[in-house]
Amino acid sequence: MKGKHKKSSHYGVGKRAIEVLKLVQTDINGPSEVQGISGARYFITFIDDFSRWTTVYLLKKKSEAFGAFQRFKALVENQTGKKVKKLRSDGAGEYNSNQFRQFCEDHGLLRQVPKFRRKKFEDKSRKCIFMGYGPDGNGYKCWDPEQKKFLISSNVVV
Known about the structure:
Layout: E1 24-29, E2 42-48, E3 54-59, H1 65-80, E4 86-88, H2 98-106, E5 110-112, E6 129-133, E7 140-144, E8 149-153
Parallel strand pairs: 1-4, 4-5
Antiparallel strand pairs: 1-2, 2-3, 6-7, 7-8
């Protein structure tokens, strides 16, 4: 069975920001089939990678994303006394305007976009064959016939 499966953390492995506002992740979702009472059909999220603090803004149009980011940045920098240092987005286009590029340059803000993009609901899983348990009981040992190699994973869907 293929599908989208959220990875569970394994013994705290993973690189997260080491301080508040060092990395903020953002994504825009929509358009929604149902319009909100305010007329919003989109929403945008900003997540501080260190604290996992999440802020959501409702938008009528995708073009309002830059204004939402400016409001978010002003709010969190005022509340924490720290500066947003890096913004990670999926590169879908909401932050590609010249105005936004200039804003980032003027404020010393680094932008990070993944090298590849997946569609929202694209399969992430691979078909593998269960071969037992990993050494020290740290996950499942699986054979990937496509890549012809063994994997140790704690993220298995049956």
